[in-house]
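Closing statement on the zinc ion sub-project.
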Amino acid sequence: MILLGFDIEEFDLPMEHGKTLSIADQLTISTKGTLSILAMLKAANIKATFYCTAKYAICQPHIIKKIVSEGHEIASHGYYHSHFIPEHLAQSKKILENLSGNNVFGYRMARMMPVDESEIKRAGYLYNSSINPTWLPGRYNNWRKSRIWFFDRSVLQLPVSVSPLIRFPLFWLSFHHLPMFVIKWLSILTYRKDGYLNLYFHPWEFEDLNYPEKYGLPSYIVKNSGEKFIKRITNYIEWGKSKGYNFAKSIDFAQSVISD
Ligand SMILES: [Zn+2]
């Protein structure tokens, strides 16, 4: 299986780069990107998982309903993207369940920050996809953590995919920079070793980010954003399908692991 995950959040990245963006603008860019993603998934006839903040869901409930009505999974990406207390784990789950009308089984911490696994379990999650098992200078060093799924306090951990050996991350930024043939080659290597891929993106990558005055983002982030990114991911999905990979929701994978 290839698990595609999309983290829908307040687009607070410009604040890390010294810009101010109204909450309305932060939500709008995520909504526009989400609509592009939904169209792309529908055209490919595949399902995916959307990790949403409660803040986003409360402000844009119609998008949550649309995601669910098109057969995708809603998981939690916390309450706010820029503020966390342990109580948010259960609160965001409940809000997303009320707004989506579905159970919420999965969690992903904002910015892949560490989170207390006993709190994840207490909040009632089945799986947690909050580990990028590599070293990202200035962010985290997860070199010693498992690359593939494992259980921690009976919560299934679904680290995002990195290649075997050198642990090259197959995360969102790699899809902006590497030639597609390299991405596909790394995908094959990783899939052969692990038996699945867990990939993640953000809706705002599917919007043109190349407005330095407005967003203040560096070139390594804006490269290949917007239409170019839609083309890249569409191409990747078509390639994956032609290779016989099965694109699925994280919960489908989690249940297959748990039932074994
Ligand atoms: Zn996020």
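The mean pLDDT is 96. With this model delivered, the sub-project is considered complete and its resources will be redirected to Aim 3.
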